[in-house]
């Protein structure tokens, strides 16, 4: 059941990041030009999409664990999704602040 709560939490964060980009870590440290580039290139949309996918995968892990009769697998999947999501956000999120897309 914790996997469902984790998934709903990730989905809520995804919605909030789309509405309020200042919630993303390090966003307030950007220069004004970097903030404009991030908005124009879709950084809030990317962050929101990653968090929503993380939430859906976490919830799916719960049901996968029930289907396989191993309820503990849901928390392992939630942990893996969290770690993988952080890596994706850090590695691919950096490219949204560099140059403005034309």
Indicate the proportion of strand residues: under 5%
Spatial gap, N to C terminus: 45 Å
As a whole number of angstroms, the C-alpha radius of gyration is: 16 Å
Low-confidence spans: none
State the major sheet: none
String of helices and strands: HHHH
Strand count: 0
Mean pLDDT reading: 87
What helical percentage do the residues reach? over 70%
**What class, by secondary structure content?**
mainly alpha
H/I helix tally: 4
Shape: elongated
Characterise this structure.
This protein has 102 residues and is an all-alpha fold. Helix content is 73%, strand content 0%. The protein has four helices and no strands. This is DUF3784 domain-containing protein. Keywords: Membrane, Transmembrane, Transmembrane helix.
Task: Please supply descriptive tags for the structure shown above.
4 helices, mainly alpha, transmembrane helix, single chain, elongated, 102 residues
Short description:
The longest helix has 25 residues. The protein is built from 4 helices and no strands. Helix content is 73%, strand content 0%.
Task: Note the topology.
Elements: H1 2-19, H2 32-41, H3 43-67, H4 73-93
Helix pairs in contact: 1-3, 1-4, 3-4
């Amino acid at each position: 059941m914790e996997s469902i709560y984790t998934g709903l939490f990730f989905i809520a964060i995804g919605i909030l990041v789309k509405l309020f980009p200042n919630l993303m870590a390090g966003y307030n440290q950007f220069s004004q030009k970097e903030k404009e580039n991030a908005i124009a290139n879709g950084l809030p949309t990317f962050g929101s999409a990653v968090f929503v996918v993380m939430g859906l995968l976490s919830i799916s892990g719960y049901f996968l664990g029930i289907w396989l009769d191993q309820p503990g697998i849901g928390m392992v999947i939630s942990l893996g999704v969290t770690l993988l999501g952080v890596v994706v956000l850090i590695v691919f999120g950096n490219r949204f602040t560099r140059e403005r897309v034309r």
